[in-house]
């Protein structure tokens, strides 16, 4: 029997040929498979290379299941990371390098998914916006945002929003709005997509007439705090309120004053903005706005390599698990799967001839039986491995630990406490 020799290309892909653990296993698995298939009684029509190819396929199959299990367990923690090296020496192996590692849990995926909501609320904006103004005129209420909105460039000069100072792609963004053609150098905000101008905020409301303090605490506590003698307050009840309550109350008062008490308002219709009340001063002030364009999620205004990182299961940097890192349970599964593949291979070989003529009669081959047995064994092994791995995802492990903790607490509740080990009242 020929020994496993990497120089003779014993396996189709040569992934594990240089692994001495795989080499040792390959020589033994030939004996294992042939004896299980009855080679000592009747010759098995399988070559060593066919069995070694099945061993390699079994190892690759097991590695695939393990990598899928890892992906399911912590996919959200690796989104956006580098996809890994595509080469290993002279071999083109695809993304790899993070297999068999246990990552730290992160909330990056959750934070990234929450960023659009924070952006709409005016906090943690990812894409750039521009603040600028429209020069108001006495007795005029309607203004065209696209043509009259101006902002400051880096030199401090007023320019239209569409000037090259803020834009990057030449003449691609030229506009013709209501018959008014924007100048030839017009484009859009850098990294922004063509589309309707979005108005994020209009700074058009009456100023507060006076500073107002509103709090649920008593007046004496407020005065004590202002005059720094709170240590000598005559009251015995203090209210410690969270800061966010003050922030929410301030926002509530501000919105209430703007809506219920202010005559200042505006209405946007297409490219126009109408302001109320109509300016009556001979030299009215400017109307300030904060605007932007539809965002391109693949083109941010900052360097973001995570866009080109891991995005789905196809580019996770998981390579084939080295055979030397597999324990006894994994190797036994691989042996059994290799045997099932060898049954199928032998069955396909014997199926080429349904009968073989021998002196005095014909010998019937059992090719179809071996094929069906081999495929059934493969399916059983896959199902068993999948069920085992499903019980061991990180989420399932947490559930198991939680159940164990609850059961332990129930048991401890029924254990009597000896005298002197607990406080007895009465």
Note down, in words, how this protein is organized:
- 37% of the residues lie in helices and 14% in strands.
- The chain folds into two domains: 1-126 and 319-366, no CATH class; 127-306, no CATH class.
- The longest helix has 31 residues, at 48-78.
- The protein is built from nine helices and 14 strands.
- It has helices spanning 20-36, 48-78, 108-120, 145-148, 219-226, 243-261, 328-350, 367-390, 394-413; strands spanning 85-88, 91-96, 130-135, 142-144, 150-152, 158-160, 176-177, 180-181, 198-203, 265-269, 272-276, 286-292, 355-358, 361-364.
Structure in a nutshell:
With 426 residues, the protein is an alpha+beta fold.
Mean pLDDT: 81
Structural class: alpha+beta
| Assembly status | single chain
Q: Approximately what portion of the residues adopt beta-strand conformation?
A: 5-15%
Helix amount = 25-40%
Number of spatially distinct domains = 2
Count of separate DSSP helical elements:
9
Ends distance: 86 Å
Question: What keyword list fits this structure?
Answer:
3-stranded antiparallel sheet, 2 domains
Please write out the topology.
Elements: H1 20-36, H2 48-78, E1 85-88, E2 91-96, H3 108-120, E3 130-135, E4 142-144, H4 145-148, E5 150-152, E6 158-160, E7 176-177, E8 180-181, E9 198-203, H5 219-226, H6 243-261, E10 265-269, E11 272-276, E12 286-292, H7 328-350, E13 355-358, E14 361-364, H8 367-390, H9 394-413
Antiparallel strand pairs: 1-2, 3-12, 4-11, 5-6, 7-8, 9-12, 10-11, 13-14
Helix pairs in contact: 1-2, 1-7, 2-7, 7-8
């Amino acid at each position: 029997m020929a020994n496993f020799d990497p120089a003779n290309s014993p396996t189709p892909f040569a992934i594990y040929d240089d692994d001495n653990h795989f080499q040792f296993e390959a020589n033994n698995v030939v004996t294992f498979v042939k004896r299980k298939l009855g080679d000592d009684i009747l010759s098995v029509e399988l070559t060593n290379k066919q069995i070694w190819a099945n061993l390699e396929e079994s190892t690759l199959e097991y590695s695939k299941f393990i990598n899928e299990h890892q992906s399911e367990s912590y996919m959200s923690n690796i989104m956006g990371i580098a996809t890994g090296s595509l080469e290993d020496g002279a071999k083109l192996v695809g993304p790899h390098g993070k297999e068999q590692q246990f990552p730290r849990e992160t909330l990056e995926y959750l934070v990234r998914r929450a960023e659009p909501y924070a952006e709409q609320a005016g906090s943690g904006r990812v894409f750039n916006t521009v603040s600028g103004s429209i020069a108001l005129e006495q007795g005029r209420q309607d203004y065209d945002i696209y043509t009259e909105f101006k902002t400051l460039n880096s030199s401090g000069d007023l320019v239209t929003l569409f000037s090259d100072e803020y834009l990057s792609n030449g003449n691609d963004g030229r506009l013709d709005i209501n018959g008014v053609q924007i100048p030839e150098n017009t484009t859009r905000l850098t990294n922004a997509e063509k589309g309707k101008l979005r108005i994020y905020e209009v700074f058009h409301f009456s100023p507060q007439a006076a500073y107002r303090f509103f709090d649920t605490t008593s007046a004496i506590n407020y005065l004590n705090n202002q005059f720094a003698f709170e240590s000598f307050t005559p009251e015995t009840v203090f209210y410690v309120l969270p800061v966010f309550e003050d922030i929410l109350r301030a926002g509530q008062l501000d919105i209430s004053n703007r809506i219920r008490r202010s005559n200042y308002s505006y209405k946007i219709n297409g490219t126009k903005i109408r302001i109320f009340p109509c300016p009556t001063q001979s030299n009215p002030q400017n109307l300030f706005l904060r605007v932007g364009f539809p965002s391109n999620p693949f083109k941010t205004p900052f360097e973001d390599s995570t866009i080109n990182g891991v995005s789905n299961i196809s580019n996770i940097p998981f390579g084939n698990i080295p055979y030397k890192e597999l324990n006894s349970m994994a190797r036994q599964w691989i042996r059994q799967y290799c045997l099932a593949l060898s049954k199928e291979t032998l069955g396909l070989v014997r199926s080429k001839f349904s009968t073989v003529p021998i002196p005095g009669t014909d010998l019937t081959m059992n090719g179809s039986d071996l094929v069906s047995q081999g495929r059934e064994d493969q399916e059983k092994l896959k199902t068993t491995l999948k069920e085992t791995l499903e019980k061991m995802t990180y989420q399932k492990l947490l559930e198991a630990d939680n159940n164990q903790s609850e059961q332990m607490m129930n048991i401890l509740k029924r254990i009597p406490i000896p005298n002197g080990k607990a406080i007895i009242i009465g």
